[in-house]
Design goal:
Strand content: 15-25%
Radius of gyration: 23 Å
Helix content: 25-40%
CATH superfamily of the largest domain: Vaccinia Virus protein VP39
Shape: globular
Number of helices: 10
CATH topology of the largest domain: Rossmann fold
Structural class: alpha/beta
Length: 426
């Protein structure tokens, strides 16, 4: 990450204190363990690849060789899953840099009013200025830089959280990995944008490959990036991308995995583990815009997708139509409540795909899942620790873990995805 400032590294490492650069690291925390190991690597070199290391908190492993990162993540996953199943390995990337297809930049200004953009310092709302990042799509960073440079000539002020004064709060850029389509979302504190049309023309002159520009209005004091109101000011208001041969519509608020290369591998493994024969009724819980469900549909008899996010459900329905998938239905409901209803109605579900948030699933969801009694559960997890907790619960409910693999969706960070197949014990 390029920030325009340098750092001096001092190392005071001891087994007793586990200190690097004067910082002490907690042995009991996996996140702290990643930081500790990465800081040791960084201190050996004298300088970090990222001058914002230790401030933004995004890349715990930025200075660790990629093969070492994979080994560490595989070891952690294998250890956590050991009571349930043997981990088959970890799937890494051939090119692990600049993989993020969605980039969020928070905007502010210096004392002289010069626009700045970047990321929040870990645990704060202080913005660290960033020009480029090793994780982010290069084109997205270039567009954000251009917007930053255009602001003064259009007299567009950046937002100040303390005073509530200013217009531009955030810029979000999404780039289609295979389509190359680019969405730019300008998050404003007010729907009124001066010289809006001229600003769009100036931005498109610099980046004619932008396919849509959207104004999102967030007038609340909140940590959420996007507000509820949107206005399309150029293009269709969405982009499309392709995963495993299927086309998907992506709106500003739609959930879409940020690493497209590894998403194909992750979902490919999930479908492989399900072992669908064409006779199954499948439930895609937490279905989002329908990515897993649509991929599974051609191998299943019927697919049911359930998702609480209304915008995602709308996109899912469109995605099914444009992929000519007729054996999938979407429902905008809480997944746990929906499964209870299915169980009460006596609906036979053979396989459930579940891809919960980092916190994992709560007992209400897991109880609903066990009440449904599917023959197979394919659990896609972005947190091995909550995965292990949920597997323990499902084992008590009569399931057995049969296969597991880790997928490195987030190189240079402490996060890793895991796919686990669970089967109902007869």
């Amino acid at each position: 990450m390029k920030t325009g400032k340098s750092m001096e590294i001092k190392r005071t490492d001891s087994k007793a204190g586990r200190k690097v650069n004067g910082k002490k690291y907690d042995k009991g925390s996996k996140r702290e363990e990643y930081k500790y190991k990465a800081d040791k690597e960084r201190s050996k070199k004298g300088n970090s690849r990222c001058e914002a290391f230790g401030e933004c908190g995004g890349c715990q492993m930025i200075d660790m060789p990629y093969e070492e990162q994979l080994k560490l993540k595989q070891k952690e996953c294998a250890s956590l899953l050991k009571p349930f199943v043997r981990l088959e390995g970890i799937i890494g990337m051939e090119e692990p840099e600049h993989y993020r297809n969605k980039v969020n930049a928070a905007f502010t200004h210096d004392r002289k009013g010069k626009p700045l953009s970047g990321v929040y310092k870990e645990g704060t709302h202080y913005i660290i200025p960033v020009e480029e990042c090793l994780l982010e799509n290069k084109k997205a960073d270039e567009i954000i830089g251009s917007i930053r440079e255009l602001l003064p000539s259009f007299k567009i002020k950046t937002y100040d959280e303390d005073t509530g004064y200013g217009l531009l709060r955030h810029v979000m850029v999404r780039v289609g990995h295979t389509s190359g389509q680019i969405m730019v979302v300008l998050v404003l504190s007010s729907p009124i944008m001066p010289s809006k049309n001229n600003f769009v023309k100036a931005l498109l002159k610099l980046h004619p490959d932008i396919t849509t520009i959207i104004v999102n209005v967030n007038d609340r004091k909140t940590s959420m990036v996007l507000g509820d109101k949107e206005q399309v000011i150029y293009g269709k208001g969405y982009i499309e991308d392709t995963l495993n041969g299927k086309s998907f519509k992506i709106s500003p608020k739609s959930f879409y995995q940020v690493n497209s290369v590894q998403t194909e591998r992750l979902y490919g493994k999930a479908i492989e583990y399900a072992g669908l024969t064409g006779r199954e009724t499948v439930l895609d819980a937490y279905c989002g815009i329908g990515t897993i469900g649509i991929m599974a549909a051609e191998k299943a008899k019927q697919v049911i997708g359930v998702e609480l996010n209304r915008d995602a459900v709308k996109d899912g329905i469109i995605n099914a139509k444009q992929n000519k998938i007729s054996n999938i239905q979407f429902y905008q409901k809480d997944a746990g409540e929906f499964m209870v209803q299915l169980a009460e109605q006596g609906t036979q579900i053979d396989t459930v795909f579940m891809d919960p948030p980092r916190a994992g699933s709560d007992e209400v969801f897991l109880n609903s899942l066990s009440a449904l009694k599917p023959k197979k559960i394919v659990y896609v997890s972005c947190n091995p620790e909550t995965l292990a907790r949920d597997l323990k619960y499902l084992v008590k409910k009569g399931y057995k873990a049969a296969r597991a693999v880790a997928v490195d969706m987030f190189p240079f960070t402490g996060h890793v995805e895991t796919v686990v197949l669970m089967s109902k014990v007869k």
